[in-house]
């Protein structure tokens, strides 16, 4: 039996097919074998249609192969997940900018003043339209950087001021003595919001930082007084994919 459900990934809605079978009277070994074979069959069928599996999660782990499955197998196809995460980053960035700065020209919150750069693990970096990327490998990075020379400086002012973003630390994190997420600028706040979305966290690492390689044109922000120029960035990196075999 196939049931179609609606799921939310980073604020984007998708349909998910859930396949269930009656296994009354089956042995555990038979159930496991049927689970694994169903995943392999459907994935193969979709591959023939050009819809390649992008992420495979086995029993909530991306490190287990399908032949180790005991409870469930979740397969995400194509590049829809990456596009959903990109859209979520852009929405969160605009929201955090508008929440932490005073609008004058509106240029900072205008996505036309930002660009995405794909940094392949084995190739030349290039500017891209993130919604037209065919695929991303495990060692690839997708970077969002500003094109405005003052964007990073404004972010630093936000982080060091009264409008900086503060996030509560979970009890488990406190037990590990993780420092409080306080005084973040809009770069750091955007990354933190995405990391707190479980639908994104299981497939992508999202973090904010600074780059000297991809400086904004005319960049004015520095790493401390008299330091080197640096531009803020938000980075997406695919997590390890599960294995079909």
3D architecture notes:
The chain has helices at residues 28-48, 80-100, 151-159, 171-175, 186-195, 198-201; strands at residues 2-9, 12-19, 53-58, 73-77, 114-119, 126-128, 141-146, 165-167, 181-184, 204-211, 231-238. With 245 residues, it is of the alpha+beta class. The protein folds into two domains: 2-77; 80-238, no CATH class. It has a five-stranded antiparallel sheet. Strands 1-2 form a two-stranded antiparallel ribbon. The two termini are 25 Å apart. The relative contact order is 0.16. Mean pLDDT is 82; it is low at 173-178.
Biggest sheet, open or closed, and with what strands and sense?
5 strands, antiparallel
Termini separation (Å)? 25 Å
Strand order of the largest sheet: 6-5-7-11-10
Chain oligomer state: single chain
> Which sequence of SSEs, written as H and E, runs from N to C?
EEHEEHEEEHEHEHHEE
C-alpha-based Rg, rounded: 21 Å
- Identify the overall geometry: elongated
Q: What percentage of the residues does DSSP assign to strands (E)?
A: 25-35%
Overall tally of domains: 2
Average residue pLDDT: 82
Low-confidence stretches: 173-178
Estimated structural class: alpha+beta
- Approximately how much helix is present in the residues? 25-40%
Put simply, the count of helices is 6
Per DSSP E runs of 2 or more residues, the count of β-strands stands at 11
Features:
245 residues; alpha+beta; five-stranded antiparallel beta sheet
């Amino acid at each position: 039996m196939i049931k179609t459900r609606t799921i939310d990934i980073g604020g984007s809605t998708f349909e998910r097919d859930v396949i269930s079978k009656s296994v009354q009277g089956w042995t555990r070994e038979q159930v496991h074998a049927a689970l694994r074979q169903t995943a392999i069959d459907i994935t193969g069928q979709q591959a023939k249609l050009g819809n390649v599996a992008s992420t495979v999660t086995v029993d909530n782990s991306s490190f287990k192969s399908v032949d180790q499955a005991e409870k469930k197998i979740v397969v995400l196809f194509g590049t829809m997940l990456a596009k959903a995460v990109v859209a979520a980053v852009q929405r969160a960035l605009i929201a955090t900018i508008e929440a932490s700065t005073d609008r004058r020209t509106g240029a900072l919150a205008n996505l036309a003043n930002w660009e995405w750069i794909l940094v392949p693990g084995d190739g030349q970096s290039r500017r891209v339209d993130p919604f037209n990327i065919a695929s991303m490998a495990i060692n690839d990075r997708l970077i969002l950087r500003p094109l405005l020379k003052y964007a990073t400086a404004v972010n630093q002012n936000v982080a060091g001021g009264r409008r900086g973003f503060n996030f509560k630390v979970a009890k488990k994190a406190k037990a590990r003595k993780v420092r409080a997420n306080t005084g973040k600028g809009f770069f750091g706040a955007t990354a933190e919001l995405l990391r707190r979305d479980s639908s994104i966290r299981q497939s992508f690492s999202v973090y904010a930082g600074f780059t000297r390689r991809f400086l904004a044109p005319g960049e004015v922000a520095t790493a401390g007084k008299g330091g080197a120029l640096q531009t803020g960035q938000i980075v997406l990196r695919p997590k390890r994919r599960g294995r079909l075999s």
